[in-house]
Design a protein that fits this description.
single chain; about 160 residues; mainly alpha; globular
Length: about 160
């Protein structure tokens, strides 16, 4: 049986804690998704960067489509899905690197890394960035958890 390598929710309490953290900021969710807190294309780049770390095929597909809608070119989307940031706007690179770090550490970021993005973008923008990161992380882990269930039901015959 092949090993399943994507990050998942292994405990319901972890899922509920993540949802609770997002719900505490629910008044900011609509403005985030409307592109009022950060530009919609920037939000999609962040979400693709996190999804590349977590490997959620559902989120990768959905956010690639949304990124196209927001005007991001296909070659940049492919690069983001591969974890490559060099085709992205230079002014967004610090945030995209932070997004990768955020995903790799499950939100337990190095305080110096966070301070660096605060120095670049300001606290309000970083809070909006982190809300986008939290939101996509929940989606990624939910999608991967569903895939894990399918994987287990297939006795490891599904591609992992």
């Amino acid at each position: 049986m092949k090993r399943f390598n994507q990050r998942t929710y292994s405990r319901p309490s972890a899922f509920f804690a993540d949802v609770k953290a997002i719900m505490a900021q629910r008044d900011q969710m609509r403005p985030l998704m409307r592109g009022e807190l950060i530009d919609a294309a920037f939000r999609e780049r962040l979400m693709l960067a996190v999804t590349a770390v977590n490997g959620c095929r559902y989120c990768s597909f959905a956010h690639a489509r949304q990124a196209l809608t927001e005007g991001i070119k296909a070659d940049e989307i492919q690069a983001l899905q591969d974890g490559v940031l060099e085709n992205s706007p230079p002014e967004q690179l610090p945030a995209l690197l932070y997004a990768q770090h955020w995903a790799e550490t499950a939100g337990q970021v190095d305080p110096a890394a966070r301070q660096s993005v605060v120095d670049t973008y300001g606290e309000d923008t970083v809070q909006a960035i982190e809300l986008a990161l939290q939101t996509i992380q929940v989606g990624n882990l939910m999608g991967n958890t569903a895939d894990y269930v399918l994987y287990r039901l297939s006795f490891g015959r599904l591609g992992a």
